[in-house]
Amino acid sequence: MAVNLQKGQKISLEKEAGGSLNRVTMGLGWDVAKSKGFFGFGGGKSESVDLDASCVLFDESNRPVDVVWFRQLKSRDGSISHSGDNRTGAGDGDDEQIVVELNRVPESVRSLVFTVNSFTGQNFSTVENAYCRLVNAANSQEVARFNLSVQGSHTAQIMAKLYRHNGEWKMHAIGENGVGRTFDDLMPQIVPHL
What we know:
Layout: E1 3-5, E2 10-12, H1 13-17, E3 23-32, E4 51-59, E5 64-68, E6 80-82, E7 96-101, E8 109-118, E9 127-136, E10 141-147, E11 156-165, E12 168-178, H2 183-190
């Protein structure tokens, strides 16, 4: 049974998964908020919203060493890959996925920070039902889910961090709102969470 994470909560991945995890998928999903139409009633037209998931890899000194995002779909070492850009949020399930082979992530990488940005600059008031979830890729079981649907004027969010602690992987639900079209714009906000 998946843990519904609250902002700031930390969990042990192996404990929640009931055993060792070698491969996990971070899924990002969202829907376009229905516009209200005339006088605040239904019937308005909804536009597409292009949210982008990214994963920034940090070393022991909290320096970024690599990034996986829609412009680089695989980490240089091959341990992390991105499903590709979804520009609409249409359809059920995850709209973008980042697969992490935990046992292949180089020892020099201490943490992985997952972000979401509105590349087109639309703010999160245009989005609903947004979430990130971590899935055990071996059995497709959801390990943890974090609700991102905090509507507002922000255009980005630092979703979560996977990090090594005492020889095991843990997850920290961050949920900090930000402004920016790509992960680069969030770097000053990410550093305090490392």
